[in-house]
Design goal:
Length: 521
């Protein structure tokens, strides 16, 4: 009986031992189970956008699997999918964790990404013109918008917009061009918008007979984009796209652009304002050298003007017949004894009349050049004849170094009893004893006391102008003495009718005082 009990206990022990061994061996074959690591993290929990998507043995693989999930979503559609992808991996020790397969992890990531989509962008086309960019849904809309811009300068559609690949670019970029409608018919590989009708024959029935003017091929000869147009594929949401009409409006919108106008002989500010289409008050505001509409301007002076130009500039060439009154070019007689500022009209002009066949080139609405193909003068124009000098006139400099303007030229409140309310010069406040120099070379006419001027110096210059320097403390030149520009002629002071130490400086032209600041270099 004792033997049987001992045998039974031994068998019971063997059964327990066998079951434990079987359990341990089975763990090696359970999917997702790994032996615990001693002294480190054994499982990595992966979260995307705050949601758990699975567990990995190697946390570094999470980034690779997320990239695969995003690629899968992108490959499933032609649209561009945009979503937040906040990846977080947390490691811990867990000896009995269940691990996700790659397929399970990727599927879970895809589900979370789709649920958190920001937006889905669709294929589109962006048109870049200078600094302006407009985007449309497809190339057909791009061509329509560009065609409408081109049609601003043509009646009908003799010239049609085409898009071609740019071989000079590494990425896929198209450039917009225009071709005559008859050329696009030959190049069937190019897709175009609209159809063209011949124009340019209007008014030909009014041409004078027997003159040869009817032998020209009048009308629009060329039309082209003067601004480079680049078209590139992109991915955008619907709210970033424009319709054809809105895109065409943006491409043809006028912007105010600053330009430089060089003053010509005989120009006036009002004439420049009209010629450049710049309001006179705006012209004065744009140029610090101009005080008002009566400001003096000089030939060759550069003025800032404005001009309205479209975003997309379009050039064109037309052959035209017209009749016009015309002016002959000015004829000049050059006098070596006169300064370039001296001129006198010897003959007044009179307009002529002519019939013309011409080729004109335009940039937007501005005529750039005219080539006369045939001309018949009904009666000739009489030219304007002007005699002008060739000698370079003297220049003028500020008579002191530094100083603060204390009284400008023109109307003012009398600074003290007996003083004039019209200031004929300009005052610079400066300490007594400041060096005063000749503004330009010339001959001293007067040097001494001048009543209200105090001590004063007058200098006559070669161009007929005179400069005066008043309220001096000391005079360093004598009447009849020839001085050079920049030569020290006196020291500033506070003599005569004066309210404080300063230098009074005048300039007279033809005996009339002018604002010296308009003539100083």
């Amino acid at each position: 009986m004792h033997y049987i009990t001992r045998y039974h206990n031994r068998m019971k022990y063997l059964r327990y031992k066998t079951a434990a061994l079987t359990f341990v061996l089975a763990l090696f074959f359970v999917p997702g189970f790994t032996m615990p690591r001693v002294g480190g993290e054994s499982v990595f929990e992966v979260m995307v956008n705050g949601q758990t998507v699975g567990r990995l043995r190697d946390g570094e693989r999470a980034q690779e699997l997320l990239l695969t999930a995003r690629k899968n979503i992108a490959a499933a559609s032609a649209e561009q999918f945009l979503a937040d992808a906040d990846l977080y991996v947390e490691g811990r020790v867990d000896n009995f964790a269940h691990f996700s397969t790659d397929e399970e992890m990727i599927a879970a990531m895809e589900e979370v990404l789709k649920a958190g989509a920001i937006r889905t962008d669709k294929p589109a086309w962006s048109v870049k013109v200078g600094r302006m960019m407009v985007s449309l849904r497809d190339l057909d809309q791009v061509r329509q918008a560009l065609q409408r811009a081109a049609d601003t300068y043509q009646d009908g559609e003799q010239f049609l917009v085409t898009l071609k690949g740019d071989d000079d670019r590494q990425v896929s970029v198209l450039t917009a061009q225009t071709l005559a409608a008859k050329e696009t018919e030959k190049e069937s590989v190019l897709t175009t918008v609209g159809s063209g009708d011949d124009i340019g024959t209007e008014g030909l029935s009014d041409l004078p007979s027997g003159t040869g003017f009817a032998g020209f091929d009048y009308g629009l000869k060329e039309l082209y984009f003067a601004t480079k147009v680049e078209v590139a594929e992109s991915y955008l949401s619907d709210d970033q796209l424009l319709g054809v009409d809105e895109a065409a409006d943006k491409l043809t919108k006028l912007w105010q652009e600053e330009k430089i106008y060089k003053v010509k002989s005989g120009d006036t500010l009002s004439e420049i304002a009209i010629e450049t289409d710049t309001p006179l008050d705006e012209l004065i505001a744009l140029n610090s050298s101009l005080e008002d509409e009566n400001s003096t301007i000089r030939e060759g002076q550069e003025l800032i003007t404005t001009s309205a130009v479209p975003t997309l500039s379009i050039g064109r060439v037309e052959e035209l017949y017209y009749e016009e009154d015309y002016e002959a070019e000015i004829e000049y007689i050059y006098n070596d004894d006169w300064y370039t500022t001296d001129k006198e009209t010897r003959q007044q002009p009179s307009a002529g009349h002519r019939k013309v066949a011409a080729k004109k080139t335009y940039l937007n609405d501005e005529e750039v050049s005219t080539e006369i193909l045939k001309e018949e003068v009904t009666y000739p124009a009489v030219p304007k004849i002007v005699e002008i000098g060739t000698k370079v006139p003297p220049t003028y400099i500020k008579p002191i170094s530094g100083g603060r303007i204390s009284s400008p030229f023109g109307r003012r409140k009398a600074p003290k009893k007996g003083a004039s309310t019209y200031h004929k010069g300009i005052d610079w406040a400066t300490p007594v004893g400041t060096a005063v120099v000749a503004s330009s070379g010339g001959v001293v006419e007067r040097a001494g006391w001048g009543s209200g001027y105090g001590y004063v110096v007058y200098i006559n210059h070669a161009d007929g102008r005179q400069t005066r320097y008043g309220h001096l403390s000391k005079i360093l030149v004598k009447p009849g003495e020839r001085v050079s520009q920049g030569q020290k002629i006196a020291l500033s002071g506070n003599t005569g009718r004066s309210t404080g130490p300063h230098i009074h400086f005048e300039m007279l032209i033809g005996g009339t005082a002018v604002n010296p600041l308009n003539y100083l270099n």
